[in-house]
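Section 3.1: Structural characterization of target chains.
Under the original work plan, the team committed to producing a structural model for every single-chain target entering the pipeline before any wet-lab resources were allocated. The record below documents one such target. The sequence was received from the expression subgroup and is listed exactly as submitted; it comprises 74 residues.
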Amino acid sequence: MVVALLYETEAEKEQHLSAIDMLARDLRIADDPIRHLYENELRALKEHARIWNFLSIFVSRRIKENLICRWPRT
């Protein structure tokens, strides 16, 4: 079984960890559940992406959309 690295460089890792922290703060959810959702979504998008520069934006947007659709705030 071959396991691909999620983060190619330390800079890429820092970019995504920063996005995870920002999402956790914005959504008022603990880091661990957000990290799990984020990394799963990142794997799915990264598999088909040609340009990775904006993946943190796309992943963050998809997570927010999914969570807001499931649990709308009142």
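The chain has one domain: 11-70.
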